Amino acid sequence: LFFRAFADGATAEKLALVVQPLVLLAAALALQARIAVTQGGRAAALPAVVVGALATPMLVQFVPGRIDHHGLQIVLVLVATAALARARDWRGGALAAVACAVSLNVGLETAPYLVVLTAFVAVRWAVLGADVRSATLGFAVALALAVPLLFALTVPAADWPMLKGDAIGRGHILLVGVGGLGLALLSLGVRAPVWRRVGLAALGMLMLVLLRVAAADVVAEPYRTVGPLLWRLWISHISETRSLAATWATSPIEAIGWIFFVAACAATALIGVLGRQSRRQTGSASGAAALLAALAVAAVLLAAWELRSLALATAIGVPVAGACLGRLWSSEAPRGRLIFAAALLVFSHAPDNFLTNLAVPAEAATVAQPACSTPAALALLAAQPRGLVLAPIDQGGAILALTRHSVVATPIHRDVHGNRLAYAVLLAAPDAARAMLAGSGVTYVAWCPGSGENRTLAREAPNGLLARLMRGETVDWLTPVAAQQPGLRLYRVG
After folding, report:
1. Which of 14, 309, 391, 430 is deepest in the core (most CB within 10 A)?
2. CB 103 within 8 A of CB 114
3. Cα(372)–Cα(422) distance, rounded to whole angstroms?
4. Backbone angles phi, psi at 433, to 5 degrees
C-alpha cells in the first residue's frame, strides 16, 4: 500500500517483497544487540550485530523476496526475550506475553521457546516473589487474554472444534487459558516462599493432566496426515525435517557444522550462569542470564531434533555470543584480547560454514540440469492455455507463482489429497495412471530434469510414468508440447 502511492501495482509488490524481509532483519539485529547489552554491557552491542549479520542459518529467513512466517516469528521471540530480560513491571511482562501470543497464532514452530519463556516467568516468581509480582501478573493476564482473542479473530469459527497438531487449536487455548489465569491468581494471592513453590507445582501437575486428557492435539505429530507413502518419498527427503542424528548417519562433518554455533552459544551461556552462581551474583542480570541459558539449551535440543529449527536456534544464540564478546573486549585480563580473538573466530560462523560446505552431498553438487523455478524456465508453460498441471510436489509453488495455471500438488503438507494423487499417477504404469486421471480435469503433465524429487520417484518405480518419461519413452495419451526447453518438460493430456 505504501509503495502504490508512487508506483504501479506490480512494481509496488516487487518493492514490498524486497523491503519487508530487510525491515524484519533490521529489527532482529537491533533486538539481538539489546539483549546482548543486558549481559555484556554496551560493548556487546556491536559484536552482536556483527555475529547476527554473519549468521547464515538465520539470514536465509530474511532474504529479499522471502515473506515466509519464519522471519516474523524470529523477531517476535526476540521481542519477548528482550522484554523479559529487562522487565521491571507489568508493562514488560505484558509486552512479552503479547509477542508470545502473536507468534503462537502465526505458527507452532516457536511453541517450545514460548514454553521456556513462560516457565522462566513462573519459576522466577516462585523464587523472587514480590520483586517480580507485577511483571508476572502482567505476563500471565496478557497471555491468557491475548492468545484466545487472536485465535478468535484469525481462525474461522467453523475450525474452532478441530483437532490440529500443526496449527493453534482448542487444546492450546485451553492450556494457555488455565495456565495464564492460574499463574495470575497465584501471583496475587500467595506470598510465602514455600507456598509459592507448592502452588506452582500444583499448577504444573494440573497442566500435565489437561495435556493428557483434554489437549492431546497439542503434542500430535504435525505430519501425521500425509500418510506413509508421502512421508517416505517426500517429507523424509526434505532437509529441514531431518534430525541431527539422521544427518550424522550420512555425514558427521555436516552434522557438526550445523550444530557448531548453536552448541557453542549454549555452552557459553551455561558457563556464564555457573560463573555468576560461583560468585553468588543475583538480581535481574542473573535472571536474564538464566533465561538466555535456558533458551540456548532449548535451541540445541530443537535444532538436533529437526534442522527446521536451526534458524531460530541461531537467532537465540547471537545475543549470547555478542554478550560474551562484549565482556571479553572490556576485560582487563592480560590475555583478554587474545581470548577475544579466539572467541570471535568461534562465533564468526566461519567454522560451521567451512564444515557444512566441506560436506556438501555429492548428489546436490552435481545437478546437471537447471532448476525450473524461474520465469524463463516456465515461459513455455505460461504461454499455454490455462489449465490444471500435474507435476511433482516441489514444482507446484513455482507454477502457481509464475503462471496462470492451477496445480494438483504443492509443497504443503495439508494438500494431502492432491499430493497423494500426483505421486500415485507418477509412480503408476502409464495405463493405470491414465485411469487415475479420468475425470480429474488435469490438462498438463510436467516435470523438471534438475529435481532430486524426480530421481527419488524414478528409483521407487522404475517402470512408472515419470521414470518412463525421464528415459524419453513415448506415452500414447501424452503429447509433448513443441519447443521443449532445457528446463521444464511439458506434455498435454489427451
Report:
1. 391
2. yes
3. 18
4. -60, -40
